[in-house]
Each structure stands twice: as C-alpha cells, then as structure tokens.
Amino acid sequence: MLLLSFAIQQLFIMPTKELTETESINEVVNVPNEGNQTCENCHVPLKGPFCANCGQEADSKLKYFWVVIMHLLDDIFSFDSRASRTLFPLLTRPAFLTNEYFAGRRVHYVPPLRLYLFISIIFFLTLKFFIAAENNKTITVSDKQALISQVQSHIKQLKTEKSDVEKTQEASVDAIENIATLDADIAKFTVYLDDLNSDYNLGSNKQIIKLTRELLELEFDQIKEELPADEKARFDSLIASRLKVKSGTQNKQDIKIANNDDGTLSFDFLSDEKNKKVNAFVKELTDKAEKAFNTDTGPLIEQVIGKLPQLMFILLPLFAVLLKVMFMFSKRLYMEHLTVALHSHSFIFIAILLSEILDVLDNYLAPMYPILANFIGVVAGGILFWIPIYLFLMQRKVYRQGYFFTFVKFTVIATIYSFMILLTGLVAVVWGLMGI
After folding, report:
1. Which residue among 98, 248, 265, 361 is buried most deeply as judged by most CB within 10 Å?
2. What three-state secondary structure class fits 144?
3. In angstroms, rounded to a whole number, what is the distance separating the alpha carbons of residues 117 and 275?
4. Is 370 exposed, middle or buried (0-12, 13-18, 19+ CB in 10 A)?
C-alpha cells in the first residue's frame, strides 16, 4: 500500500525538475529540512518531525487528496507480516492475542479494532454473496434455456414412443394403458415447460420456477433408476408445495401488530394524533412484511444483511459492558473487556466464514468425490463446534477463574447475548423492511 501511495505521488504530485539526492529523500519521506524550516505555529526553528517548543507536528496536514486516501487505506488494510502472526492464533489459540495485547506485546499483531473491521467487512460481503447466490439459485438465463430444451426433447421423445405404440401394438389393454401413461407424462412435462417459460418477475413465478427446477431434477433421475426413499419423500413434498403455490393456497403469513380488539395499536402516553401516526407506520410496515414473506424474501434478506454491520458495531460495546458486569471482580478495565469482545467477534466471523466456504466446496465436490466431500463436511461442522469451546476457553484464560465459575458465567453471558442478538436481528428486519 505504501508503494502504491509512493507511485501515485511520483505520477501526480512530484515536480518534473530533477532533484538532488537530499531533496528527493526529504520530499518523499516528508522529513523537514532542519536548516531552513520553522514551526508554522510558533516560528521556532525545527530540529525534528515535531516542534520542541509547542509540540506541533512539522508535517502539514494539507496534503494532496490522493496522498490522504492512500495513507487512509494503508492504515486500514496494511496487515503486512502481522497478518500471518495474527490470524492463525486467532483461530487456534483462545485468548493468546488478547493476553499478548494486555501484556504490551502489540507491535507484532494486528490491532483488535483494525482486525475486527477488516474481518467483519469480508464476512458480511461474503455472507451477502452466499445468500444472494442461494436465493438466486433458481435458474440463470443459460441454465433455464438448457432445461427448457431438455424438457422439450423429452416431450418429443414421449410423443414418438406414443406414436410407436399406436402403430405397432394392437388395441389391447396393455397398449391402452401405455398410451394413457404416455399421455399423462406428456401433459405433465408440458405443464413444467409452461411454468419454465413464465415471467420470472411476476407474482409467485420465481418460487414456482424454483420448485419446477427441483422437481425436474428428480423427474429425470427417476427415469434412469428408482428414487431412494428420502428422495421420493422430497419429490412428493415438492409436488405438494408447487400445487399450493400455483393455487394460491400456500400458508400465507398474516402479520398483525395490535393491542386493541379492532386491530389497531395505541399507547396511553401518546396523543390521538401521534397514535394515528404510529398506526399508519405499523400498517405500512406490516404490508411490506406480508409482501416480503409471502412472495420473495430475497430483497429483504439483502437489506437485513446490509444493516447488520452497523448494528453489530453498536452491539460490541454492549457485549463489553456485559463482560464487565459478569467479571466485575477481575480488576479489568472496560477497554480490556472491549478488546475481548473485538477478538471474540473476529474469531466468530472468520470461523463462520471458513465453515461457509467449506460447505460450498462440499456441495461442489459431492457428485465427483463423495469421500473428499464428506471429509470437508466434517471439517466444516468441526469448525462450528469449535466456536463455543473456543469462547469458553478464552474467557477462562483471560479472566483466570476456575472451570466451574467460568462455565456458569459463560452460560449466563451466552443466554443474555443470544437474546441481544435476536433483538438486533429484529431491529435489522424492521430497518430492512423500511428500505424496500
């Protein structure tokens, strides 16, 4: 990053005249010229990067825009060799980074706040990508056209088989049954084809197309061989879900927020005018919620994920307060509890991120390398199982209490914090609904 900043300085800032070696070094690293430069504040001659008289920094804060931006990015993302010394113990050695920070050995590791900001940015961006990919998994344009062609080819094949039966077989009971079966299959796949050709953006078509795609995968599988019991049960469930969506009889979410018999919401401490405004806001919110939950939840999920980073940043100091209360006799300062909170959340985010990546890899490798995919799945599950163990060991090693008392406090903290997470999620949903 510093090299990039230096390059931009050379391209856009440095004068074209040829400099002496001393002048070049002084301009690049911005070291004051001890012989000529004086403090801009008190005009005392400078003998270093700071004024000996008033303490003001010699380096002017009025810099070129690109220099400021480069230095800012460098301050945020310059992990250099500290990254390798930070990330591995963060994952594998509970409380190591925290205790090193408390002991004053900080220069070799990424600072807690910078570490949290970097990991949280990567985590939420990746989470949004994973969920958006899963939500849009219905069919891409090319995949949809390929599936339509496959269905059309199968319908053509069924019609050819029907024609062959009519020509070669007599009007026997078996021939009539075969023709009836083929007619039913032709009609079924024709309906599938119509659903695939429907407008993706209208009503519940997105959900219908998604169910149709999953059904067709099983339909073509059972043409080759009989489906296993679990796949057969899934096939029947998909058929039932698809019929409900198409008929409009699927379970719709009727969301009501009211404390009166007439379905309105009112508070005694508010005036009638303010209660009307509250009801208007709640009505708008519930309408958006019903639309989101009964049709496509994708836009709401994206909105919620977009709000979570800000809310989690607010939740961090509250979690530190919770630690301060639960370990009030540990003689730890609040900033030390905040450091524990930063390291804990950084670990949780990176552990979940690794588990998600391994889960995607597991699904990708399952058809070709099932044994390897199973191993990766076990590792992904093991990472999630490691999270509560890591956090428990971290609290014990930081606060240096016995296993029993640490476990009791850890359980209480986990319970309270789970409630805080649920409340934060609710706020994110409401905030997200306001944005769609």
Report:
1. 98
2. helix
3. 40
4. exposed
